Amino acid sequence: MSHYVGIDLGTTSITVLALDTKSREVLGHETIANDTEITSADDRLRGRSEWDMDQMMSQVFKVLRRISDRNSNSWPLEGIGVTGQQHGMVLLDERFRPQGPFIGWQDRRCLDKDDNGKTYLDHMYSMGGHEFLHSEYLPARGYMGATLFWLSQTGQLPGRLQASFAPDYLVGRLCGEQPATDPTNASGSGLFDVVNGVWNETLIEKIGLQKNVLPLIQAPCTLAGHLTAKSAHESGLPVGTPITVACGDNQASFAGSVAEYEDSVLVNIGTGGQVSVYSTDPIRMDGLLVRPYLKSGYLLVGAGLTGGRAYGIWEQFIRLVGAQVFGIKDDDHLYIRLNELAEAASGSGTLHCDPVFMGSLIDPMRRGAWSGIDDTNLTPGNMTRSLLEGMAEQFKMTYDTMLSNGVVKRTRLIGAGNGVRKNPLLSHILSDAFRLPVQIVRHTEEAAFGAALCASVASGEFEDVEAAGKACNQYDQLT
């Protein structure tokens, strides 16, 4: 037996999964809410996002204990992999203890105005200039690079402290070592030279930061250390278990979803959405991200696309109509009913939905719209179907942009995330849009699954994550 644990330290929840790579079976998974945000009401209004790192670690150990109690009779445990939110950061002292809160990726403090009336983000862009091109994408609000710049400019960045991503801090906590990072996480700072795989020292110097504030870079899927006696006691896992360096959640989800790298396009739909393809070359495209992968090569990613959040906004509108117009206070089956109406819709005709209700990664001020409404298509079913079609259209347009910039056409469409898994109608609409059959990832926690695969590579069971994915990923065909 080859058993591994994968941890996904997410923004809203923390998930732990146990995987048997020999049988390809998930032995179990446990999820707990990440309810450790400590942002005050006033600070929320100021666009702050602050979290208690010690409380967050307590939540991790709580869910690790659950998975240990559930599977301890089936160990030995060969390794632990970690992934999670990529952009936020916490400052650590010389003993690797948090100094201040974890500042999340939703934080907007770098959009505050400086003494010259410019946002700190714009000020950083002007100071960095063309050097930002080497990072492949600009740091946005909440990215480590932008937050560090704000801290530096406002005199709140003592020289002795070092920044850490949340998943990297967790790895350091588990094995009692100084937190390092890997390229998949480092690229999320906006200060990383994606092509050369190193910190962009020229850029870092130009914006007034010191390189020593940033974590050391370690190769993906390699050993970071071993579970300490203290962490073993807190988690219930065996002392000395190998711990793998943490990786970015987008890359972990790809590893935990895709078996055939050169022939697959992954559409992952949860609250938001992403389109990802693997490439041996860093192909630059406007509006798309180039991210280092967990082996040689890159992920080309269309991120920030609409997903379950857009459908949720529409569902909330229908719910309000029921409550405010008809006095219906609750309906637990509203999504099911909306899908039934959309599936039975006679046809939306000229009706078209642009479901970008909360802005896009490229244009945060963009807003959604319905157009082509007439007296034949203004029905709940047609409106719902056009929204789902608009979501699929966004994913297909992103993929078409990749093809027009040199990406080889794929013949496999892999669907992941609850937006695909729990909505057969959307899956069929995606299949029609891409003109490809959809293969739906069988397991439900792709990022934690991918983290476990990284641990299997670090242990030496597999040569790389592609080999691990070919051996372990399984699919259900859309019916």
Provide tags for this entry.
2 domains; Nucleotidyltransferase, domain 5; globular; 16 helices; 479 residues
Briefly summarize what is shown:
This protein is of the alpha+beta class. It has 16 helices and 22 strands. The strands form 7 sheets. The protein has a 7-stranded mixed β-sheet, with helices on both faces.
Structure description:
The protein is an alpha+beta fold and 479 residues long. The protein has two domains: 3-249, ATPase, nucleotide binding domain (Nucleotidyltransferase, domain 5, 2-Layer Sandwich), CATH 3.30.420; 258-442, Nucleotidyltransferase, domain 5, CATH 3.30.420. It is 35% helix and 21% strand. It contains 16 helices and 22 strands. It has helices at 41-45, 53-71, 120-128, 144-153, 166-175, 183-186, 201-206, 229-235, 249-255, 308-326, 334-344, 380-404, 418-421, 424-434, 446-458, 465-472; strands at 3-9, 13-20, 25-33, 50-51, 77-84, 90-92, 102-103, 162-164, 192-193, 198-199, 223-226, 242-244, 247-248, 264-269, 272-279, 289-292, 298-306, 352-354, 369-371, 412-416, 438-441, 475-477. The strands form seven sheets. A seven-stranded mixed β-sheet has the order 16-17-15-14-20-21-22, with helices on both faces. A five-stranded mixed β-sheet has the order 3-2-1-5-13, sandwiched between helices. Strands 4-7 form a two-stranded antiparallel sheet. Helix 9 (249-255) crosses helix 15. It starts with a strand and ends with a strand.
